[in-house]
Amino acid sequence: MQVSTTPSSGLAGHLEELLVNFPLERSLAQDPLSCVRPLAVDRRSAEVAGIYAATLAVGNTTAIRSAFADWLSRCDGDLTGLVDRSRRPSRDRRLREFRHRWIRGDQLAYLAYRLHRIEAELGGLETVFADGSTGPEGFASGLDALARALRGTDGVDPPAGYRALFPSPLGASHSPCKRLALFLRWMVREEYPDLGVWKRVPLAELRIPLDQHVFWISYHMGLTRRRTRSWAAVEEVTARLREFDPVDPVRYDFALCHTGISGDCPKERDISVCGACRLRPDCLLWHPRRGRAA
């Protein structure tokens, strides 16, 4: 029997309670955004630092922040300077020896070259996304344009595996594009801790960065019926959240994500942890009868 979940009637209020009582500073110290904020002195520096941090956002947050710090050190603390100098793909050995999971230094050095070309020829990442989002799929068309610009089609062959770093929601895999959606959240939302340096993208159009934590919690809150992460799941979760906040549907993302990262959601019934959770009244682990036969 397939089970279809729906949100509880109290979920909107419980999400608000979660936000009001959330330990923001504790979680920000663990988040890659804490590495980006000191470097984001203007739109361009925020874009450069943000796209590098978002690209590296694979694995646990401690490893991500360590990888970003390593890359920044190899760039002598000047990411925008690296991009400015990258009129051709870098052969700097110190950059090329970088490793984080499956992401290599030659790929990140090539990204600097792509960012140089995008800024010089297209006016920057904000322009690429905003112009692209006028396409038939709206936000997804914008992400597709951004991914294509980052991958590059200028005849200069990228390193092996580079283009796979920037999937599109319109591609065959229908990727949830968590890292690009996260980058967009940082750039567009003005509310702390996000950066709010982009002005051409409406806040209401953002989509949820659907990592494993947010997806798991979303499913068990009844925000999606889908059992795998995909762009369709992103749209479904965002549409539900937009019912609670039409102006800023992704403002719940940081708290939901770090509820999972911190262990505040153990992803199993554990009253010693779950007892204090604001969302326990809405969780299918605790209230399985909220499911209904489909």
Task: Provide an overview of this structure.
With 294 residues, the protein is mainly alpha-helical. α4 (43-55) runs antiparallel to α11, α6 packs across α8 (105-122) and α9 crosses α10. The mean pLDDT is 94. The longest helix is centred in the middle third of the chain and has 18 residues, at 105-122. The protein starts with a strand and ends with a strand. The strands form 2 sheets. It has a two-stranded antiparallel ribbon with strand order 1-4. A two-stranded antiparallel ribbon has the order 2-3. Helix content is 49%, strand content 3%. The protein folds into 2 domains: 1-21 and 207-294; 31-205. It has 15 helices and 4 strands. A hairpin with a 2-residue loop joins β2 and β3.
Strand percentage = under 5%
Query: Regions with pLDDT < 50 over 5+ consecutive residues?
Result: none
**In one word, what is the shape?**
globular
Distance between the termini: 8 Å
Described by strand count, sense and barrel closure, the largest sheet is: 2 strands, antiparallel
Number of strands: 4
**Strand-pairing-aware structural class:** mainly alpha
